[in-house]
Amino acid sequence: MELEYVYKRPSAISSEADGYCPGCLHSTANRIIAEVLDEMDAVGRTIAVFPVGCAVLSAGYFLTDMTIAAHGRAPAVACAIKRCRPDRLVFTYQGDGDLAAIGMCETIHTANRGENITVIFINNSIFGMTGGQMAPTTLIGQASTTGGPSRNPDEVGYPFKMCELINQLEAPKYIARFALDSVPHIREAKKGIKRAFSIQMNGGGYSFVELISNCSTNWKTTPLKSLKFMREKMIPYYPLGEFRKPEEEE
Amino acid sequence: MFLINIDFQKCKACGYCIQVCPNKVLAAGSELNEKGYAVTIPERLDKCVGCSMCATVCPEAAIEILKSKTTPQERNAR
Q1: What mean pLDDT comes out for the span B15-44?
Q2: What contacts A76, CB < 8 A, 6 or more positions away?
Q3: Cβ neighbours of residue B41 under 8 Å, at least 6 residues apart?
Q4: pLDDT band at B78 (very low <50, low <70, confident <90, very high)
Q5: Has domain B2-77 been given CATH number 1.10.10.10?
Q6: Can you tell me the distance from the alpha carbon of A81 to that of A118, in angstroms, rounded to the nearest whole number?
Q7: Residue of chain A nearest B13, judged by CA positions
Q8: A227 contact residues in B (CB cutoff 8 A)
Q9: May I ask the CATH architecture of the domain A25-244?
Q10: Do the beta carbons of residue A42 and residue A11 sit within 8 Å?
Q11: CA terminus-to-terminus distance, chain B
Q12: What are the distances in angstroms from CA A143 to CA A49, A125, A138, A229, A248?
């Protein structure tokens, strides 16, 4: 009996890839990035920059060249790599605690300079690896170990909307927010990542892709219930869509 | 007809594929892998239409889907 693949595991992912909790959408994000790299045949000319936090576990997933930056400094390291090797596809893969808290300075200034890199931002509204502390993106009323049972905006302010923040700057070329909770959203996210990478490879400039993700471990729920939380609480606060894209594509 | 290959050691039994399958092909299994997860099994493979939604939601990329190239005669005989 002759067989053909309808869906095949992407070859850009290591066969030993492992490390995330059951149902963690970080793995889904890695998988769709790997699929895009496969489709663009870019595995051999990609350099990934990983930060600190759960996102660093992805270093065990990809078969591309990579480096690991200090906490929050991944965009700065990626800028240096891209300026030295402009022919390479350079992307950073950062969580919310890394990109929006300690790395806010690098994030904003890299975007403002319009460096020709892609930043992939995984927003799961909590610090994952360190044990569920409050992140800058933790929702109002959401429980965290440092914010108590409910985030109080009078005390700690409001969650950052990173896409909207970066959309205030002149230089970025592509800014979009997607979610990873369902099949249509995952397919849109994959298209968005591909568009961001294409813009970079054509010398377009800075691209920023936010992916709404989950953390069932620190939300203290099951993977399936975490998807429900994303749909009911996160996506209404963080609206999905492409905030900015190059004019010729509009 | 379709074949669903679920990597026994990679599956973490999150249940996303079971929930997303429109034809309820997949079900929670009882056999545990090395990490201690009860691996999902393609229980009603004859109902599979090859939409690959399970593979799209699988975080671990543990699901691969294959299609057999059958002739129309073979298909009618089933």
Answers
A1: 93
A2: A69, A106, A110
A3: B6, B26, B27, B28, B29
A4: low
A5: no
A6: 12
A7: A22
A8: 16
A9: 3-Layer(aba) Sandwich (3.40)
A10: no
A11: 10
A12: 30, 10, 8, 12, 43
Centre a 10 Å sphere on the Cβ of residue A135 and count the other Cβ atoms it contains: 31
Read off the pLDDT band of A103 (50, 70, 90).
Answer: very high
Flag whether residue A18 sits within 8 Å of chain B, measured between CB atoms: yes
Q: Which residue ranges make up each domain of chain B?
A: 2-77
Q: The tokens of B24 are what?
A: 């309820």
Per-residue pLDDT at B71: 64
- A39 pLDDT tier (thresholds 50, 70, 90): very high
Question: Residue B69 has what pLDDT?
Answer: 77
Q: Say whether A4 and B67 touch across the interface (CB within 8 A).
A: yes
Average of per-residue pLDDT values in chain A:
93
- Picking from B2, B6, B1, the residue whose alpha carbon sits closest to that of residue B64 is B6
Domain boundaries, chain A: 25-244
C-alpha to C-alpha distance for A192 and A198, rounded to whole angstroms: 10
Mean pLDDT over residues A65-88, rounded? 95
Q: Is A26 on the interface with B (CB under 8 A)?
A: yes
**How many CA atoms lie less than 13 Å away from A45 in the CB half-sphere?**
11
Q: CA of A52 to nearest chain B CA: how many angstroms apart?
A: 21
